[in-house]
Amino acid sequence: MPRDDSSTFAPSWYSAHESPALQRARAFERLWRAFMRARVFVALVLLALQLFLLLTADGNATVWPTALTSTYLLVTVAVMLMWTPAEHGRAPTVQWLITVGVDVAVVAALQYFQSGSSINFTPLFALPVLTAAILGPMVLGLGTAAGATLLLLADAWLHGTGLGQLDTARFLQAGLAGTGFFLVAVLAHQLASRLAREEAVSASSQAAARAQAAVNEVVIESLGVGVLVVDAHGVVRNANPAARGMLMGDNYPEGARLLLSARPSWSHLAALVEESFAVDAALETETTIEHGERPSQRLHARTKLTPAVGERGSLCVLFLEDLREVEARVRTEKLASMGRMSAAVAHEIRNPLSAITQANALLDEEVRDPAHKRLTTMIEQNAQRLSRIVDDILNVARPQPSRTDGHVPPLPLDSMVRQVTAEWMRQNSVTQTLGVHLHASQGLVSFDPEHLRRLLVNLLDNARRHASGKPASIRIITQPSGGEHLRLSIWSDGGPLEATVLKHLFEPFFSSESRSSGLGLYICRELCERYGAQIAYQRARLDQREGNEFYVLMPAVRGAALVAPPARDGGHQQSLSYPSQAAQDHEHTIVDPLRSGHPPLAAS
């Protein structure tokens, strides 16, 4: 059973590091409080000793040493509880006087007035000397040692038997003790200085590590690739926002407890991590995560094990990549390469193609044999086909600004559709194959006429390529869609598209036919996006027949003056007879891929 203490997200990827100044302040505070507690302990020992002497000694014992040690205890406790830690300066300060100065004075008083007893208080001078040498500069430590030495020498002189008869042994003892205090002050200060230098080096290293950790954390948090740190029990120790979004969506709960085996949709990830630990190697796989109401996500998952650290063992770093983004990057690379080759295509193909077309036109004027006429016609048709392919490539590669700024005059949708379908029927010798249903007679769209013509022709060509050719096997339908959009639909009775084709719908250079450039539907999507429209594919039912439907939702324009669509071929327009089947009768069977979050599908 995994431990609960490791099953929540850590607040940070790296341990928090304190600043060098804060570290130094904290270290000094710890030392200061240690010395203050030592002073309290010494005061307690001295008070207990004086109470013991007072209770067990004869009548020569006095009460004042007990009072002195009691006062000393109160002062030390008050300083420890109420005084703010601060470093001693080079000159004596108030804090020095109530800490080191009080210690020296109390020890000196006890040493002088209890000199007749067998108790020697000289070693207690080491406490103030250490305090001054470690918490202050060298000058303060040496000064404290000098003060203690002078007090010991004065005590030896005062306790001499007479002015000319000094106690040599007592003076010698005071001198040796003073020398020891000087040595203690120097050594303690040197050790403290060495520790301070080591601490400065450590702080510098920690600052560099802290800066590197901050950079690493920014990089990991901003990665589009999901990164999870998982232990051997399958508990997620940490995860960046991209990984949390892939696992739990955008609104993941803060501090969520993640266990990869907790949800069925994560079972593949849990098995991958478990197998990585078992074989002690990096693994990878593709998986799908179901999100309930949200669309499922296809992910590429790969693992990498960290080296074992202490008793914790190794961890597994799990990388998750959204395959939709990978495919989008591939499409972007295709477009980039297409842009680089567009200039070469223009010079290397278009110019020779123009020469071929002109030479063929001249040759066509000279030949009279029907067989030769057929050959020149074939040359012209294929030259036109190559010219269209070149135009498609150049149009895709050329940057196209958005035209949703209101500078495009409104266009009557039904009139434009009627004109384009008449031209298309005449050019492709199609009479009964196409059925036209126009139900947006008052509808206006903000679309360039030539671009709308290109959109309709591409969709009609795509429908003709897959339709059966029977009467009314292709339908074009216009109708209002809500109060803000007009719906243009091109339906054909072709068979269902293959799954491999659906995955790449509207992508450039992808086609299910070898003779197609794979740019038709991609150009349709680019044209729609330029004018704020949306194009989508679905499998739809019309007149009790299944078929493929491409439809465009265009923003409707209200309260604008009509602009008649430009006439082509000398202004000639053809009257059409429209079947009575209404567009509202068709029944949809597949969800709009634009709304469902599925990736774009296939190009013609």
From TrEMBL:
Gene3D superfamilies: 1.10.287.130, Histidine kinase-like ATPase, C-terminal domain
Keyword terms: Kinase, Membrane, Phosphoprotein, Transferase, Transmembrane, Transmembrane helix
SUPFAM superfamilies assigned to the protein according to its UniProt record, in alphabetical order: ATPase domain of HSP90 chaperone/DNA topoisomerase II/histidine kinase (SSF55874), Homodimeric domain of signal transducing histidine kinase (SSF47384)
Domain Histidine kinase: 344-558
Transmembrane segments annotated in the record for this chain: 40-57, 63-84, 96-113, 125-153, 174-192
Ranges annotated as biased composition (Polar residues): 572-583
Region (Disordered): 565-604
InterPro entries: HATPase_C_sf (IPR036890), HATPase_dom (IPR003594), His_kinase_dom (IPR005467), HisK_dim/P_dom (IPR003661), HisK_dim/P_sf (IPR036097), Sig_transdc_His_kin-like_C (IPR004358)
Highest rank taxon of the organism: Bacteria
A GO molecular-function descriptor: phosphorelay sensor kinase activity
EC numbers on record: 2.7.13.3
Catalytic activity: ATP + protein L-histidine = ADP + protein N-phospho-L-histidine
PANTHER family on file: SENSOR HISTIDINE KINASE, SENSOR PROTEIN KINASE PILS
Name of the protein in its database record: histidine kinase
Source organism of the structure: Hydrogenophaga borbori
